[in-house]
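Request: Give me one sample?
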Amino acid sequence: MQKVDILCLGTPLMDIFAKADEKFIKEADLARGCTNHLKDEEVAKIEQLLEEGAISQYPGDNARNVCEGFSYLEKTHNSQGKVCAYAGNIAGDFFGYEILRNIAKMGIESYLQIKKGKTGRIACIIDEEKERTFAVHLGVGEGGMDVGKLPSCKWFYVTSITLLAKGEISKSAYEFMEKCKKEGSKITLSLESENMLKENKEKITRFCKMADVVFLNMDEMGALGLGEKEVGKLANLVFLKKGKNGSCVFEKGKKLADVAAVPVKKVVDTTGAGDAYCAGALWALCEGKSDVEAGEEGAKLAARAVSKIGAGVFEG
C-alpha cells in the first residue's frame, strides 16, 4: 500500500443547500444558527418541505473540503506530485456514489469504505439574514472503520467533531491518530463546534498534545476559555482564524505573525471558508513553505471560498 502525502478522515455526507425564512426554521423546531442532529426520517421531511427553496447540493464534510482545496492547489500550481487521500464511510446509494464521483473528478484518492445503510446528509438552510441552520443525519458516517485498510501518510488531518462523535468513528479516528503518532506522521487537528469543545475540554487538551498543527477560530478559542497568549500553546504550530480580520500564526507558544485577510469584492457565503484556509495552509506546509507563508496561502484560498455558495468552489 502506497504512503500518501496527506490523509483526511471524516464523515462523508451530501450538503443540500436551500433558502427559507426564520418562520420555517421555527416551525421545523430547529435551533437557528446551529447544527441539529436528527433522525433520517426527520431530515427527509425537512428536505421535502424545502424542495421549492433548494439551491444546490454538493458533497460536504470538513475533511473532504480540505482534500478538495488541497487538490485544487496541486492542479493550479502544476505540481500534482502529492497524493491527497480521503477516508470515511459511505453507503452504496446515490449520494455515496456521487461523493465517489466527485472526489475522483478532483483527483483525490479514495479510501472510503462502503457500509450498509444510508450515506449521511445535511440540509443547510440559509435564511434572510444569511444565517445558516443545519439539519444533519450522519448515516453510516458514524460507524467504525477498518483502520488496517488505511495507508500510511506524511500528514494526517482530522477534526475534533470526528474525534468526539458518538458513533464508533471516533474510536477509529483516535486509533489511526495513535498509529500516525508512532510512525512519525504529522498530525493536524482542526477544532470545530463550540458546544462540543465546551463539553469536552479535557479530551480536547489531550488531542492537542498529540497534534503537531492545530487550527481554530475565535469562537472556538472562546469555547475553550482561552486568550491568544494561551491558544498559541495548544500545539507546536497554531493557526487562529479571525474571519475578515485575518489570522494569527503561533509557533512554540509565540506569535510569529498576523496574516491579513485577502480582500473580496462580495462575500456570498462563508460555508467552507475555514476548511479552505486549512487546505491552503497544509498544502503550503507540504510544499516546504514557511509557517507564515502557509497562513498566507490559507487566506488566499479562504477568499475564493467565500465568493460562491457552498464549499465546492474549486471546480472551474
Remarks:
- The chain has one domain: 4-11+61-119+142-305.
- Residues 62-76 form the longest helix (15 residues).
- The mean pLDDT is 91.
- Residues 4-11+61-119+142-305 form a domain with the UDP-N-acetylmuramoyl-L-alanine:D-glutamate ligase fold (CATH 3.40.1190.20).
